[in-house]
Please model this.
Amino acid sequence: MSYWTLSLTLIFVLIPLLLSKTLNLGLGRDMTVATLRSIVQLLAVGYVLKFVFDSESLLYIFLMVALMIVAATHNAQKKGVAIQGIIWKIAVTLIFVEVLTQGILIGFNITPATAQYIIPISGMVIGNSMVLSILFLNRFTAEVEDHQDQTELILSLGGTPKQAIHRQLINSIKASMIPTIESQKTVGLVQLPGMMSGQIIAGADPIQAVQFQLLIMFLLLTTASVTSVFLGYLSYPTLFNKRMQLLKG
Model:
């Protein structure tokens, strides 16, 4: 694809801009900023990845993954400001998920330990884990607030913090995982995933593309479950003080 062809794709940006202006949605500025940022960021990361892939340096691979985790943590922590120490909790969760998934992939020789595989897969894992963290925190904080009286009642009857918050925690974990599960139910029928489509467009064998897409789908299912559970069990204890009383938000 040439830069001229790429510039023609801005038609797909003009359409929502016109709709926003016509319907007075007030989203024109946000869409313009998002478009400009995506162009600059993706072109910049493209050149960086080319350099990293050519160098095959483990240090550069580590720095790229670390940058992803820092950016994802910064973005996700905004939804959990009511939870003490949420920044380190999200960071530890992302690191754990990354080490777990890459450990399995490389340990079982599913994918080679090269920048070409580690960085793109890490990007999908960390990005998905970030979204799951946001979904979980958004639902969990709402659940805790909505059921505060119920939680305090269980505590007053001698229940532990874990027992008092159990229903809200489980509901939040389930709610955050639903999008990933539902997406996998309709894959191939309603949508062709981006990775698979990209490989096919690039000329790869469709069966090979399907195999890689299945790998990513199974990987993201683990990412969804581990992120929600790990972050949930790291978060709920800090909602209570040493006397096992629920802290007011």
Q: What stands out?
A: The chain has a mean pLDDT of 87. The chain has ten helices and no strands. The two ends are 51 Å apart (CA to CA).
